[in-house]
Amino acid sequence: MSDLGRGEQIAKAIGVAAICLLAALAGRAWAAPADTSQGSAALEESARSPRNANYTIEVRLDTSERRLEGSQTLTWTNIQAQPTSELWVHLYWNAFRNRHSTWMREDRIRGRAESRDKIKEGDWGYLEVDSVTLEDGTDLTGSMSFRSPDDENEEDRTVLVVALPRPVAPGETVSVQMKWRSKIPRTFARTGFRGDFYFIAHWFPQLGVYQANGWNCHQFHAGTEFFSDYGVYDVSLRVPSGYVLGATGRPLAVTDNGDGTTTHRYRQEDVHGFTWTTSPDYLEVLDHFEHDGLPPVDIRLLLQPEHEAQAARHIAATKAALEHYGTWFGAYPYGHVTVIDPAFGSGAGGMEYPTLFTAGTRLFNPEGGGNPEGVTIHEAGHQFWYGLVGNNEFESAWLDEGLNTFSTARTERVAYGESVHVERFLGPPGNAGSGFFAVRVKGYGYGDRPYLERLGPYRPDAASDRQDTPSWRYYPGSGRNLTYSKTALWLQTLENWLGWETLQRGMSTFFARWKFRHPTAEDFFAVADEATEKDLRPFFESVMSSQTFDYGIQSVATFKTQNEGFVEEGDKLVYLPPSEDDDEKDAEGDAEASGPKKTYRSEVVARRYGDGVFPVDVLMVFKDKHEIRVPWNDDARWRLFTQTHTAKLDYAVVDPEGVLALDLRPSNNSAQVKATPGLPAWKWTARWTVWLQDLLAAFALFV
Amino acid sequence: MVTRAFATGLRVAVDSPKLLVALWCVLFLAAVPFGLMMQQEIQEAIGPSRVGQTLLERMDLVWLGEFREGSDGLRSTLQPATTSAFDFLHNLDLVLGGRLVLQHPALVAAGAGYALLWLFLLGGLIDRYGRGENRPGLSQLLAAAGRNILRLLGLLLLSAPFYVGTALGAMWALKKLAQALRDVTSEATLLHIYLAVVIPLLLILALVMLVFDYAKVAAVLEDEKNPLKALRRGLRFVTSRPLAVGGLAALVVTCTLVLIALRTLMDFGTAEGTVIGVLAVFLLGQLFLLARLVLRLTLVAGEVSLYRSAHGQPAGLTSDDSIVDR
Fold it and tell me: Is B162 on the interface with A (CB under 8 A)?
């Protein structure tokens, strides 16, 4: 018996019991890990991703106020080896809150801000978190703060940090409830409203990614996209009845609430985001993809009514992507995909989201012109590069955009052949280039190298940044060209150099190894080396820098080998005059000519104008069709190639097969001994002159 | 009356081949200096490269990108729209989009120069047609042009604020329209609305052009030196005979649009790789330009014919029926 009285003992016992109860309740908030699939053994078995960031969200759309009101439960498991006392959360829509956000500042720098001069009050958007609580009710609202880890812009509100009362240990799970409200922006980029059309992307407080070196949660930049962990999304969307809705995942239930609203519940496992769209105007088209060796996929197309005639084109392009990407890289596993044809002028087109993507077309889009097929294949392709292989788009955007741009071009070539050039005319005044009407123009293209279409966008920005600069730090106006075009061009170079089979092996190994994970650039390089069984490091180091590639032929010349001038004959100097030149006989190496055959010494000066080094061949072609090919594998700035032959040199080409798709100026890769630029110059001048004459006549309309 | 005026105008236009050739020469010579510059630029850019072979078969867009890169000079005007069968359509786009004067400054200057030259010749044409001379001799044409240039220049200056006003009004209206349409999410709806607004704007512009057309006719045929009075006559003429005036103009515009459509249908590609092929394509283009000149002369002669008919003169132009008695 202790010195305490009986009453005191009872009180103490009650106190201990209370503490134990509280500890037990608190312990529930940080439960042991493993059941990230919300308790279903079947789901656990089928888990394809870590599922360490799971969301259950309820949201209501108020179309009159253009607002969302939402609440969510975020269940997060720390899968790293170190604890953390914080949760870092993206609030992307705060980029559209005012002009001082990082996104808006960078948008101005890249020159798009001129069109945003007249922003009305109702156009702005934001995302406000009203409360954050743990599952046990602990209120963390007061522990929220904003951070600007990238540029210290104190006015940027796109990164929210919630301090936790105690660290989340490795393997532990924390469950957090958030209440938030947002004002939907009138689309600045990708997401927002136009009229009755709503495209709602990166719209909820979304956790960053906790990695070995801490939280990876960048501010929202004008030139970057997104990065988040895989998980399960269970989302209930309450929208006006009569609105057609499309979203990530499959619909589980549709409930008429009896108050003019309908709740659509969607669920999707193993994705890293959730996007939805709604409009009363959508037409729905359903189709089904099947291909030997690939799992079937249900396709749901939500189309603008005025594009009904283009439904088949969207479906065919989606199927082309599923087939070719699936065959080349790996199967699309989700069993369904939603294709959105966004409203005209909505700014939501051409973008990828988990199991859903937006295409985009025009009222008049001629077949064979590349759209909507091109954008549909590209965004469907992102289901593989971005959706399944979840790279960090803030830091290595090229890992999805570049691989996908290359893959898109390949799919287009295989599925559709070469596209025809299209010109657009007669658009809203002041909007040159976006004409309502489109025509196919014959005779303009890239020949048998359609991928060189990327050279135009790439060339002006070729030296603007090292490609391995984190994407969010690219100069805002040039990042896109490095991310999309440069990567596609060096991947094409790899294909040209190593062969499609080898490159495909590399890309499919990368896909298989890194799907449902977050690879970095180094991971890609390592897989490429391994799968191709080549040391590609020097190549990758070169393309990841800001080096440019430009090989060219500086000059070509051909001389008779017979000497000219004073030569020794015995002990005397004798003058040898220049011999006569007979081009025709010389060219054919006339066997009937009397006397010994003439020989010619041909000289080719090849230059490396760019900093980048790549093994190339120099091909010399002679007038008798004889060819000599000499490799050039060193880093010299120029080389003199000489050959002696019985015929004169006709022309020389460096990199004759165009292996180096990154070569900035392919036109200087060849040179003829007897150049004949006159006729082609006159041909195009003559055509242009007709246009000019008509232009001058147009001025006379006003006198 | 409209069809008679049109037929008369067309007959007069095709009945004076020397005049047509002379006008075509003026148009051609105005373009030659620029053509020579462009030819030189293209030739230098091709150099000894084998891309020249490719350019004989088709336009290599890689080479075109290199050629145009970083240029805001003449090089920047070489593009698919200006070297294909859609060149006339492209220019129509520029006119309707108000971008004609936004072209390269040297081209705008050349265009302005050509327009002034045309104005000069127009005085002579109206005068000669008014006197019933379907085939004006060159010296008489130039003499008449010289007699009338000052009054026509006066009208040109007077017309400037109207054109500028119309353009500014149209820009203001379209800017307001763009703001009003910011939430329209159907391209078809947008197109219909723009057509509904742009067509009346074009009609206003056409009205301004027609009033000044007939002001010029009045200035010459009635020897009116005062541009304001000539303008009043032109306005009175147009407002008192809107159907006839509008009908004639509409006929000519329709023919012009048909011509542009025909031109765009003649998209045979770009494979002319021989001297004969290059010449053939060039000559086909010149044929279309000649047709445009024919239509322009048709309008001028038709307007004179209509004016004469309205003043109790026979519509057909004969040498005894001149309004102007000099």
Answer: no
- Burial of B325 per CB tally in 10 Å (0-12, 13-18, 19+): exposed
User: For the stretch B183-200, what's the b/e string if a residue is b when 16 or more beta carbons lie within 10 angstroms of its beta carbon?
Assistant: ebbbbeebbebbeebbee
Q: What is the spatial distance between Cα B27 and Cα A642, in angstroms, rounded to a whole number? A: 52
Q: What is the ipTM of this complex?
A: 0.94
* 8 A C-beta contact, residue A104 and residue A95: yes
The distance in angstroms from the start CA to the end CA of chain B is 27
User: Which one of A188, A553, A679 makes the best mutation probe of the B interface by having the most chain B beta carbons within 10 Å?
Assistant: A679
Calculate ∠ Cα A427-A431-A436, nearest 5°: 20
Contact A490, A543 (CB under 8 A): yes
Give dist(CA A667, CA A679) in Å, integer.
17
Q: Does A677 touch chain B (CB under 8 A)?
A: yes
| Side-chain half-sphere CA neighbours of A589 within 13 A | 12
- Residue that has been written with the tokens 């069968």 in this structure: B85
DSSP A258: S
Q: What is the mean pLDDT of chain A?
A: 90
pLDDT, tens digit, for every residue of B33-83? 999 999 999 999 999 999 999 999 999 999 999 999 988 889 999 999 999
Please report how the helices B105-130 and B275-310 are oriented relative to each other, as an axis angle in degrees rounded to 10: 50
CA distance B163 to B168: 8
Neighbouring C-alpha atoms within 13 Å toward the C-beta of A420 = 15
Residue type, A682: W
DSSP character at residue A336: E
Q: What are phi and psi of A531, to 5 degrees?
A: -75, -30
Check pLDDT > 50 for residue A185. yes
Minimal Cα–Cα distance from A645 to chain B, Å? 22
Contact between B98 and A694 using a beta-carbon 8 Å cutoff: no
Task: Give the β-pairing of A649-654 and A670-672.
Answer: antiparallel
Nearest to A550 by CA among A477, A611, A618, A467: A611
Contact A699 B115 (CB under 8 A): yes
Within 8 A of A281 by CB-CB distance, chain B residues are 185
Question: Using CA of residue A441, residue A447, residue A449, residue A452, what is the dihedral sign?
Answer: negative
Instruction: Assess B66–A contact: CB distance below 8 Å, yes or no.
Output: yes
Pairing of strands A421-425, A437-441: antiparallel
Note the pTM of the prediction, 2 decimals.
Answer: 0.89
Let me know: does A435 contact B93? Beta carbons within 8 Å.
yes
Which tens digit of pLDDT belongs to each residue from A616-668?
A: 999 999 999 999 999 999 999 999 999 999 999 999 999 999 999 999 999 99
pLDDT-based confidence at residue B84 (cuts at 50, 70, 90): very high
Preceding omega of A677 cis (within 30 degrees of 0): no
User: What torsion, rounded to 10 degrees, do the Cα atoms A547, A549, A555, A560 define?
Assistant: 110
Is A581 strand, coil or helix? coil
